[in-house]
Amino acid sequence: MQILESYINGKWVAGSGEGLVMHDAVTGEVIGRATTEGLDIPEVLQYGRTKGGEVLRKMTFQERGNMLKKLALYLTKRKEEFYELSYRTGATRVDSWIDIEGGFGNLFANASLRKLFPNQPYHVEGDPVDLSRGGRFMAHHILVPKRGVAVHINAFNFPIWGMLEKCAVNWMAGVPAVVLPAPQTAYLTEAVVRVIIDSGILPEGSLQLLSGMTKNILDTVESQDVVTFTGSAHTGRLLKAHPRLIEESVPFTMEADSLNASVLGKDAVPGTPEFDLFIKEVRKEMTVKSGQKCTAIRRIIVPADRVEDVQIALGQQLDKVVIGDPRLKEVRMGALASKQQVDSFRNNVSEIAKTAQLVYGDLDRIETVGADAQKGAFVSPILLREDNPFKNTEAHVIEAFGPVSTIMPYDTLDDAIALTHMGKGSLVSSIFTYDDKIAKEFVVGAASHHGRILVGNRENARQSTGHGSPLPMLTHGGPGRAGGGEEMGGIRGIKHYMQRCAVQGTPTTLTEVTGIYQANSAYKSSEKHPFAYYWEDIEPGMSLKTHKRTVTDTDIINFANLTWDHFYAHTDITSLDGSIFEKRTAHGYFILAAAAGLFVYPNKGPVAANYGLEECRFLRPIYHNDTVYVRLTCKQKIDRDHRGKELPSGIVKWFVEVFDQEDELAAIATILTMVQKKSPFVKIDRSNIERFLAKLTEDLKPNWGTMTPQHMVEHLEYTIRIGAGQIQGFEVATPEDKLERAQEMIYNHRPMPKEHNHPLMKKGTLEDLKYEDLSTAKAKLLEAYDEFETYFKEDPEAITKNAVFGEMNKFEWDLLSSKHFNHHFEQFGIL
Question: What residues does the MaoC-like domain cover (predicted)?
């Protein structure tokens, strides 16, 4: 029998011993065994802390985010291979979509968070704190990656999503992961991990997998580690009490089974959209993943006079649910994960049914399509009805992890809220109502006992992600029985894997530590105007003090007429009595505009655009005949993804301080500019071409490809003549609908691929040489370049065609030539 392998210490290994036998949930067929016996677990944890942790901690948030995005794209292209294996867990196509593509979606969502973090390996949190009257002693909070591993002990119901929703967060924080999936479905987790490891996208040690039960995984965790658990509340409590966790104060996050409730509002009578949405949502949450969801609706709380209506409507909906082989299109509900789950499900339903009435389904009889109900782990959807939910508490205490839910009545909304509380804490609750007052009362009353509350109605029905869908940007967790922890939640989740530290010092020191200019910090002088520097060369603290300007009456009146802002303080000096103003006052936005006029660099340079205004305060009036000057200081740099037909750039936040003639601070603002990044390519002009060609000799061998030096030179000449319009008798090879995406490549700073085949070149063989020797070819290339320059000098608006990128102007041809020449000059090592 095949043993499922673990990926530890940089290699795939199999454990020893019997382990746990894994079965196909649909056919009962044996898949293999999962065991970690004989594996050195302490060594696995230490390997992650050192090998993976050292690399991840040094990466910036932007690098980590782009790594996740690359991995998400890589996995998405290979998603179909996971679906076939997922069917063996009993999951339908829809069930599998939630697990597979939902997991990949977590990578995408967390990757996007890189835009909210600084361009460095650690995060700066909140505002600075002034600890002294003079502003020379202050504090700021930073968060750095923990120097341990994230140990994830996962449940069986989402073998892919359960891993990636956690790992995406710890990787973004700069912490490696050791994953222990539930053995019933570990074969699907293992398949994904194999693809991740083979991709080479993650640094080695960032992800390790233990395939099988591991009782001693917590025995050697350390204070810098983080442990997460998803599963039963009983098991979670046992793990949470582990002596090692207590001794080392190891952070422990638990997401446990919970008895989630959905409430039907008093206004949602039969025939209303809200009633129909409620029935549809309950049916979905009972049957998706065969009810094996920690967020599934277990308690259906409805007005007392609507119990029969709900029971009948739900029964009609459940009648439409086809059960059987999840590969079949007509099947809407597959199997539970294992026969053991079936036994547990039946036992727990039987316990609830001691007081509740079974009103739909049968624990002993099940009709299936395309599958043998006896061989597979199939059960029928079960609907129970508890008419006295305040007295009989089994439905509030026992969770049958499968397609089961219990209807219970309420009289007042306070009763409904009290019933939700009786679950003693859950991951999610929902209410379906079109009355926002009911919604508000329920949310405020129920929120203390739930991690998330969905308010569903006709207006959000099309866009709603539903009761049972945890989202990466929202916290996932709940109080009490639900575990008392939180996962995901955007930035909140990432901070769980980081250590917060309050740093005290002078503003100048903290500017250096945080990478954010702190008020009263020492300025950094620069040789040039700050706007004359590229993004990479700008530093927080880099500053400019401007010349002065006197504000006149005419300035104020003209600004009022231009903007139509005729506020009395600017235009009617007879109305100043009783106001805070003494004289005619300049508009606040005029002060900002005048400040820009003082600090803006007029020449064309790396600053591509004004990107916005983040904060603005007017501290004291500026009157006519007052004189102002500006101190412009780089506050912070934020990286930015390249997109579309624009040159790569980053965002720079500038702290603007406006002073009056008494050197008193009159206004402050933070403005943002888009600043271009330096091109990594050597500038291509005639002199540089000549200089590099002088290094090219016949005996040089390429670093890649099969070209000879003369083939390379003749190829460059050919493409330059295309740009000059001398060769245009060809069709553009890129489809019209993909041209815009292709043209982005011209503008970005990524090098050209090394083994790219140009569509106008011969495939699999070299072109025939045109010239008798390399020297002649060099001369022809320079001649072609001169003709290219002359062509566009005579017609600057000319557009010529490229076989890959379509129509291009001179600016775009120069960008492409820069990449292209650098590419081939590097190919022969002459750059």
Answer: 540-643
φ/ψ (deg, to 5) at 94: -65, -45
Per-residue 3-state assignment (H helix, E strand, C coil) for 315-336: HHHHHCCCEECCCCCCCCECCC
- Cα distance between residue 427 and residue 596, in whole Å: 51
Q: How, if at all, do strands 252-256 and 123-130 pair?
A: unpaired
Q: How many helices (H) and strands (E) does the chain have?
A: 25, 29
**CA 337 – CA 88 distance, rounded (Å):** 9
Answer for the pair 136, 507: CB distance below 8 angstroms, yes or no. yes
* CA distances to 105, 679, 755, 813, 815 from 819, in Å: 33, 10, 15, 10, 7
pLDDT in tens, 349-400: 999 999 999 999 998 889 999 989 899 999 999 999 999 999 999 999 998 9
* Coil vs helix vs strand at 382: strand
- Residues 6+ positions from 413 with CB-CB distance below 8 Å: 266, 438, 441, 442, 445
Residue 504 pairs with which residues in a beta bridge? 139
Q: Can you give the three-state secondary structure of 590-613, one letter per residue? A: HHHHHHHHHHCCCCCCCEEEEEEE
Task: Kindly report the pTM of this predicted structure.
Answer: 0.85
Please, are residues 312 and 306 in contact by the beta-carbon 8 Å criterion?
A: no
Residues 6+ apart with CB under 8 A from 127: none
Cβ atoms of 344 and 398 closer than 8 Å: no
Q: How far apart are CA 198 and CA 74, in angstroms?
A: 11
**93, 424, 482 from 102: Cα distances, Å:** 13, 28, 22
Vertex 320 angle, CA 317 and 321, to 5°: 100
Contact 650, 680 (CB under 8 A): no
Q: What is the pLDDT of residues 586-604, one digit of tens each?
A: 899 999 999 999 889 888 8
Assigned token pair, 344? 């547990």
61-76 and 93-112 are packed helices; what angle lies between their axes, rounded to 10 degrees?
Answer: 160
Q: DSSP string spanning 778-804? A: HHHHHHHHHHHHHHHHH-TT--EEETT
Distance of CA 286 to the CA centre of its chain: 29
Copy the structure tokens of residue 371. 């599958």
Residue 204, H or E segment: none
* CB neighbour list of residue 197: distance below 8 Å, 6 or more residues apart: 7, 207
**Parallel, antiparallel, or unpaired for β 404-410 and 3-8?**
unpaired
What tokens does 319 get? 């009648």
Is 220 exposed, middle or buried, given 0-12, 13-18 or 19+ CB atoms closer than 10 A? middle
**Which residue, 428, 547, 417, 531, is CA-closest to 486?**
428
Phi, psi angles (nearest 5°) of residue 453 = -130, 125
Q: By CB neighbour count within 10 A (0-12 exposed, 13-18 middle, 19+ buried), where does 722 fall?
A: buried
Length of the chain: 831
The distance in angstroms from the start CA to the end CA of the chain is: 57
Both tokens assigned to 38 = 């004989």
Under a CB-based contact definition with an 8 Å cutoff, are residues 348 and 360 in contact? no
Confidence of residue 455 (pLDDT cuts 50, 70, 90): very high
Q: Which residue has the tokens 């969502």?
A: 109
Q: What 3 state SS string does 118-137 have?
A: CCCCCEEEEEEEECCCCCCC
CA distance 301 to 199: 48
Neighbouring C-beta atoms of residue 318, cutoff 10 Å: 20
3-state helix, strand, coil in the chain (%, to 5): 40, 20, 40
- pLDDT > 70 in the chain, percent: 100
List active site positions: 255, 294
What type of residue sits at position 725?
A: G
